[in-house]
Amino acid sequence: MKANLSEIMESIQGEGLLAGSRQVFLRFTGCNLRCEYCDTPASYEPLPWCQVAEETGKGDLWSQIQNPLSVQQIGSLIKKYSSQWISLTGGEPLLWPDFIKELGDYLKPQGYLLLLETNGTLFQQLEQCLSCLDMISMDYKLPSTAGADYARLHAQFLSVAAAKPIYIKMVIDSQIKRAELESALETITDIKPDITLILQPVTPRGNAAAPSMEQLLDFQQLCQRKIADVRIIPQIHKLMGLI
Ligand code: SF4
User: Which domains occur in the chain, in start order?
Assistant: First the structure.
């Protein structure tokens, strides 16, 4: 089995509960959504070549491997890195559920741990590979940032994903309304009230403008009425100048 990837690299995880840990990133191509603030539009379509970073955290030196790649090729390519955590990212990695299952079966006996970074909509595909995942980073897309309401899909996804260690990440921009946040909190806490919620201020891109600190603190307070552990964490790898 093979998959199409745009990048393989090692860096510091810049988002979520594992922020600061050293990870290998496997960036899969393809996505079923088109978010306004997307910072990986180059991964939307299959690519003829996958870029492989030769130096941790730096984007200066890359080699190119022809797509698609097998799990054995990936296992061999990541041997030069020192991370235990492998981040499956994209694009949307759940467009490749059978491959992820095979990858997990191949890598986990070698001591690797798998983090799935997902947009939180493809719950049936999640069921296919859930058993090999060690942690799930689930995006919850608010309508004003995603351009559509994914609440029903997010609820179905969270119902499946709650069987694993999981946190939810919400990208916050200046347009978000309290009402849509309150609605999202209802959806989340009906299924998993003890979850950790990360509010991630958007890194400005396109029409997406960063929220003010006042907005962020107000939203955190609002979320804390329903969820005990609510954290504000920006994309720290970008603050550190890492890829
Ligand atoms: S889900 Fe992620 S990869 Fe897909 S469009 Fe949105 S931000 Fe980009």
Answer: 2-239 (3.20.20.70)
